[in-house]
Amino acid sequence: MTQLPGIVITGASGRMGQMLIRTVAGSAKARLVGAVERTGHSWIGQDVGVAMGGAELGVSVTADAADAFSKAQAVIDFTAPEATLDFAAYAAQAGIVHVIGTTGFSDSQLEALKPAAQAAVIVRAGNMSLGVNLLTQLTRKVAAALDEDFDIEVVESHHNQKVDAPSGTALMLGQAAADGRGVALADVSDRGRDGITGARKRGDIGFAVIRGGDIVGEHDVMFAAAGERIILRHIATDRLVFARGALKAAVWGQGKTPGEYDMIDVLGL
Ligand SMILES: NC(=O)C1=CN([C@@H]2O[C@H](COP(=O)(O)OP(=O)(O)OC[C@H]3O[C@@H](n4cnc5c(N)ncnc54)[C@H](O)[C@@H]3O)[C@@H](O)[C@H]2O)C=CC1
Ligand SMILES: O=C(O)C1=N[C@H](C(=O)O)C[C@H](O)C1
């Protein structure tokens, strides 16, 4: 019998890190073989299950990502852009699947991921849930069906600890809307309105951001015309939906040709 893929979780103590540890440790499709945190973190050296306040999982938290990756078949990484760039180099060196949930990359940081994708499978998505990935497909279709009489606005809400805006999901949805319309998002994107902005420009895709409390993640794509509005909405109430998607991606990526993939590839949508 072939062994189940061994998976390392980076950012092990984070909101997503802990959800991923639980999801992988409880899965029949993969094994938890590593947990990585940043140098100096109080969890380093502890059993990750115990550090999370539960039973031992037999995996010590380490800051040595390169070593952890060398003993694994995949890494699931929900951390921060600079950390993810380092992890991409280590994953490429080890030739393991790198599932990237991290958001907030600049264009140049996304460019810097490309060399790693020549040596390893990278699956990256601003949102790993089935629901949001289906929503991107619907958004593309609706945007293609409607003309610029319909103003497109993407509205996202998240918890008060989120550090990037607009969310990775909002940008994915904006990209899908732009693709549907056959325009470049960079040419029509309207972010951060404030003050005397002037009237809305026809054809723009607007972004609005709400931050508060413990909101897991909510996204609306609004198509607003004179006399009617269509609103496509996704509400995540549990981070488990992201963790499940990420685990699916890590298993799916085994044996695939190196390159950059997304959750549409994984889910076959
Ligand atoms: N694609 C998706 O489906 C989702 C993406 N996210 C994204 O995942 C990222 C993390 O989100 P949260 O878990 O809420 O954040 P968080 O702040 O709770 O966790 C981030 C973790 O990464 C760790 N970290 C940072 N730099 C590190 C390094 N160099 N080495 C090792 N660990 C390092 C931190 O210590 C922390 O434990 C964000 O970019 C967020 O937008 C979050 C949820 C779903
Ligand atoms: O930071 C979060 O929490 C989330 N981030 C992702 C994003 O930026 O879209 C996905 C999800 O909405 C939760």
TrEMBL record:
Its EC number is 1.17.1.8. It holds the Pfam family DapB_C. Homotetramer. Pathway: Amino-acid biosynthesis; L-lysine biosynthesis via DAP pathway; (S)-tetrahydrodipicolinate from L-aspartate: step 4/4. NCBIfam families: dapB. It is found in: Cytoplasm. NADP(+) binds at residue 38. It catalyses: (S)-2,3,4,5-tetrahydrodipicolinate + NADP(+) + H2O = (2S,4S)-4-hydroxy-2,3,4,5-tetrahydrodipicolinate + NADPH + H(+); (S)-2,3,4,5-tetrahydrodipicolinate + NAD(+) + H2O = (2S,4S)-4-hydroxy-2,3,4,5-tetrahydrodipicolinate + NADH + H(+). The active site is at 158 (proton donor/acceptor), 162 (proton donor). Catalyzes the conversion of 4-hydroxy-tetrahydrodipicolinate (HTPA) to tetrahydrodipicolinate. NAD(+) binds at residues 11-16, 37, 101-103, 125-128. This is 4-hydroxy-tetrahydrodipicolinate reductase. Keywords: Amino-acid biosynthesis, Cytoplasm, Diaminopimelate biosynthesis, Lysine biosynthesis, NAD, NADP, Oxidoreductase. The gene is dapB. (S)-2,3,4,5-tetrahydrodipicolinate binds at residues 159, 168-169. GO terms for cellular component: cytosol. GO terms for molecular function: 4-hydroxy-tetrahydrodipicolinate reductase; NAD binding; NADP binding; oxidoreductase activity, acting on CH or CH2 groups, NAD or NADP as acceptor. One of its GO terms (biological process) is diaminopimelate biosynthetic process. Residues 131-267 form the Dihydrodipicolinate reductase C-terminal domain. HAMAP family: DapB. SUPFAM superfamilies: Glyceraldehyde-3-phosphate dehydrogenase-like, C-terminal domain, NAD(P)-binding Rossmann-fold domains. It comes from Pontibaca salina. It comes from the Bacteria. Residues 7-128 form the Dihydrodipicolinate reductase N-terminal domain. Belongs to the DapB family.
